[in-house]
Every structure is written in C-alpha cells, then in structure tokens.
Design brief:
The chain folds into 2 domains: 223 residues, Spore Coat Polysaccharide Biosynthesis Protein SpsA, Chain A (Alpha-Beta Complex); 103 residues. Helices cover 43% and strands 18% of the residues. The protein is built from 14 helices and 10 strands. The longest helix has 25 residues. The N and C termini lie far apart (43 Å).
Length: 343
C-alpha cells in the first residue's frame, strides 16, 4: 500500500454536467495539506459514457495534476455503478477508500477532518454524517451521530454490537454507501463484488460489507453532500418500477450470504436481518404500491416472499400483509409511511 491515506472512487456515466464539481469539492478540502504531500487519490471510473464525459475526465486529470492529490482515470466498458465501484476498489492505492457518486460532492470541512483522523486510524470502517439536498428545497437535511455519543470529543470507536443497541437513534441513518469510508485491506479481504449492470447495488455494499466489521470509528462531522430529486435517479418512483428486476437481483445477492452471516451470529446477523428487512420492504412497496399494475405487483410480491420461506426476517411478513391489503384497497405509498411511522 502506498502513502496515500484516502482514495475517492467516483463511478461516472454521462456525468459531464456534474463531474468537475465533484472533483473540485475534494480538492477544496485539501487547503491545509502541505504542498509536498499528496494524501488523496481521486480515481474516476468512466463507465462507458456515451457523451463527452470521458474526455472531460482526462482533461480534469491534466488540469489538476499539480494539486495536492493524485488524479487517475479508468476507462472501461459499461458495467453499471457496481462494476465501476468494483474496478475502483481493485485499482485504488489508498489505505482507506470511499465512493463519491459523480453528481454528489464532499464538504471541505469534512474532508479536512477525515484526513486528520486517517493519520492514526485502524478501524475497519469510518462513519461520518451527510447532508441531503432536495431539488426545489432550500432546507437540506443533515444526518450525523448524536452529540451525546461523542462525550465532548470529535470521534468515538464502537463495534456492531453497540450500533445495534443504539440502532433506533441517529446511527441508523449513517449506515449507507455515502457515509462509509472503508479500510482498503479489510474490504479486499472480504472478496466482495458488487452486483454489476444493476441499480440498487448500494444495498449489497452497506449490508454485506458492514455486517462483517469489527471496529467502527464515528467522526463528528458532515462529509457527504447527496443530491436528491433528479427524475433520472434510481430512487425516482418510475425508475424503481421499471427496474424492479434489478432490485430483485441485488436482494438475491444479499440472500446468498444468509447462511454465512447466520453462522456469525450476534450483532452481525442482527444487523444483516434488520437491513435486509428494510431493503425487501422497499421492494414490496414498489411492487404493491408504486406499480400502477396492481395485479402484476401482487405477483412480484408473492414471488419475493417465497424466497424468505423459513427465514426469520423481522417485520417482513407484517409489512407484506399490510402492503398487500393496501394494494387491494388502492392505497398509496404515503399512507404506508404514516402507518409505519416513517417521516
């Protein structure tokens, strides 16, 4: 491993509108870094873009080559977001790595704080907060660990058992692809490959990789800026319905590790089951409430539930029953959110 503290992997597809802003947000966070150091590697994975994104990525690498970071570009045939992350993990040289989507950004303060903590970090994963910016809204949402957990410090170390004890606090909002900075050696030792050529691959990442962690360093700061509201995003309702088969493929990949993580037991299996329940419930919401073809949605939902026969997944059967009745009564997603107490 090189002297690079952090690799920032940027999966990029037809993102010429955003990619320069994403790269510059990283560079802006290096203001306090000595000139002779290059502690950060920006690894842009151009995933078969069909516009001028690839050319712009090469131009950015050349333009910023004298900055306090190393910029490399990988050009590959289209393998989807998961395939781009896989390529980045294979090629990165940092002791730790994170994934930054090309249409998102990092904060300067968060990057400075993260680099400072990486000087002596040994944890499997570092967790920081995020800011969600919704299109058309002037008020961003911010998610970070509660101040009382830090005991007046800037960070604290925990294990997955502690996290599950505190799961119904702010911690549950922080276990997403955007907030995780993984120890590269730890992650590579898991031999994980994200599902390729699908959307929703982030669920595999934040469930399987996190279920195996032994040590977690929480840092009191906002690192990631996540844009929401673009109709082209995978989380948009119409895209969820259109790509429901891809969602199923990711769930199948997560289920493949059920026996292994069940054998680990304890907090790992508790975390795995809890997160899996949420991902499958989201699939059921798509099938039963978002899909305008209600009959077809009921078929997809029943086939999904068949996969969980004999498996103890908390709240899943209850959610399925509620959603099924709502489907028949032609009720909508917002009514389900109110029933389960989701904001």
């Amino acid at each position: 491993m090189s002297d690079i503290k952090l690799s920032v992997i940027i999966p990029t597809y037809n993102a010429k509108k955003y990619i320069e802003q994403a790269v510059w947000s990283i560079i802006s966070g290096l203001a306090g870094v000595p000139v002779e150091e290059k502690p950060v590697e920006i690894l842009i994975v151009n995933d078969g873009s069909t516009d001028d994104t690839g050319l712009l990525c090469d131009e950015l690498a050349e333009r910023f080559r004298d900055e306090k970071c190393v910029i490399r570009v990988i050009h590959q045939v289209n393998r989807g977001h998961g395939g781009a992350v896989n390529a980045g993990v294979e090629a990165c040289e940092g002791r730790y790595f994170m994934v930054l989507d090309a249409d998102d950004m990092v904060t300067s303060d968060g990057m400075n704080l993260l680099l400072d903590r990486l000087n002596d970090a040994t944890a499997d994963v570092l967790i920081m907060g995020e800011e969600r910016r919704h299109e058309g809204s002037h008020e961003p949402e911010r998610f970070r660990a509660s101040k009382d957990l830090f005991n007046s410090g800037k960070c604290f170390t925990a294990d997955l058992g502690f996290v599950m004890e505190k799961w119904n606090t702010s911690l549950r909002y922080l276990f997403s692809m955007h907030n995780m900075v993984f120890n590269t050696q730890y992650y590579r030792a898991l031999n994980l490959k994200l599902p390729e050529n699908v959307f929703f691959d982030d669920a595999y990442y934040f469930i399987i990789a996190a279920a195996n962690v032994k040590s977690i360093l929480f840092i009191d700061g906002i690192l990631y800026i996540y844009r929401l509201g673009d109709p082209g995003q995978s989380v948009a309702t119409d895209n969820r319905v259109k790509r429901i088969a891809q969602h199923e493929k990711v769930i199948d990949a997560i289920l493949h590790d059920y026996g292994k993580i069940e054998g680990m037991g304890g907090a790992a299996f508790l975390y795995y089951r809890s997160r899996l329940s949420g991902v499958v419930t989201d699939y059921l919401v798509t099938a039963l409430l978002r899909d305008r073809n209600r009959k077809q949605g009921r078929k997809y939902a029943r086939l999904m539930m068949d996969k969980f026969e004999g498996k103890d997944i908390p709240k899943l059967k209850r959610n399925y029953c509620v959603l099924y009745v709502m489907n028949v009564m032609h009720m909508g997603e917002k009514q389900f959110d109110r029933l389960i107490g989701k904001k």
